[in-house]
Specification:
- Helix content is 45%, strand content 14%.
- Helix 2 (44-53) packs parallel to helix 3 (77-105) and helix 3 (77-105) runs parallel beside helix 4.
- Strand 1, helix 1 and strand 2 form a beta-alpha-beta unit.
- A 6-stranded parallel beta sheet has the order 2-1-3-4-5-6, sandwiched between helices.
- It starts with a strand and ends in a 6-residue tail after the last strand.
- It contains 7 helices and 6 strands.
- With 221 residues, it is an alpha/beta fold.
- The radius of gyration is 17 Å and the shape is globular.
- Bound molecules: NADP nicotinamide-adenine-dinucleotide phosphate (NAP).
């Protein structure tokens, strides 16, 4: 039997890399992990070109994302376009390209890596929350639209994860304060997010779709 092809965006580091490492270890899929240069989510042309070269995708993990923090009155036009392009329009454009091959196969899995800031929010996160709340909406809409094709679509909402993005956006003294408010008392390691992604894309997941699954050590509880 042919292996299913998994496309993971943003797999050069952080959560995406942990997902790619785990999926590769399982050795049951063909794996596509394009670099930012090969598949730039902020460019519609790049998405089209990449997908033209890879016409059959069975499983899509929309992981790449950025988080430009800032007070609402400091947001630039560039920030708006970059954030919405990379975190929201890019994933939608990518889904648009890969769904035809999933429909033809009569099955598919899409996992959108969202965030707890797509469930509730915090200061300086107008754009980030706009994209992540919207991504959760995309998940719900698509689960309804694509269910009849056996395409299962879910959002994963990590809390604080120990990656470069978190190190860049959360100063060390704030990290300690935040950890004190997390029931498990620590940030997640990327691999702890990857394990749930691996389950959601696996043949063991036959009935979970349209969900926003929170992995946050109890932070939002
Ligand atoms: N870390 C957290 O605490 C946390 C919590 C909740 C949700 N998330 C979400 O989880 C996802 C991964 O986060 P992370 O912490 O692992 O981030 P990260 O360590 O900063 O990695 C982000 C990845 O996305 C890629 N990327 C950025 N812009 C891109 C673009 N325009 N086109 C293609 N690839 C692009 C980066 O590639 P380059 O390095 O080559 O630019 C990198 O591989 C994001 O969607 C983020 O919003 C993270």
């Amino acid at each position: 039997m042919n292996k299913q092809t998994v496309l993971i965006t943003g797999a050069s580091k952080g959560i995406g890399k942990a997902i790619a490492d785990l999926v590769r270890e399982q050795n049951i899929y063909d794996l596509l992990t394009p670099s930012h240069h090969d598949l730039d989510l902020s460019s519609r042309e790049s998405i089209k070109n990449y997908c033209a070269q890879h016409p059959t995708i069975d499983i899509l993990i929309n992981n790449a994302g950025i988080n430009i923090l800032g007070a609402v009155d400091s947001i630039s036009d560039d920030d708006m376009d970059t954030m919405l392009g990379t975190n929201l329009m890019g994933p939608i454009a990518l889904i648009r390209e890969v769904v035809p091959s999933m429909k033809a196969a009569g099955s598919g899995r899409i996992v959108n890596i969202s965030s707890i800031w797509g469930i509730r929010s915090k200061e300086n996160r107008t754009l980030y929350s706009a994209t992540k709340f919207a991504l959760n909406g995309v998940t719900k809409a698509l689960s309804r639209e694509l269910g009849e094709h056996n395409i299962l679509v879910n959002s994963l909402c990590p809390g604080y994860v120990n990656t470069e993005l978190t190190q860049k956006n959360v100063p060390p003294e704030e990290q300690q304060k935040i950890k004190a408010t997390i029931p498990l008392g620590r940030f997640a390691e990327p691999n702890e997010i990857a394990k749930t992604v691996a389950f959601l894309i696996s043949s063991d997941n036959t009935y979970i779709t349209g969900q926003t699954i929170i992995i946050d050590g109890g932070f939002l509880a």
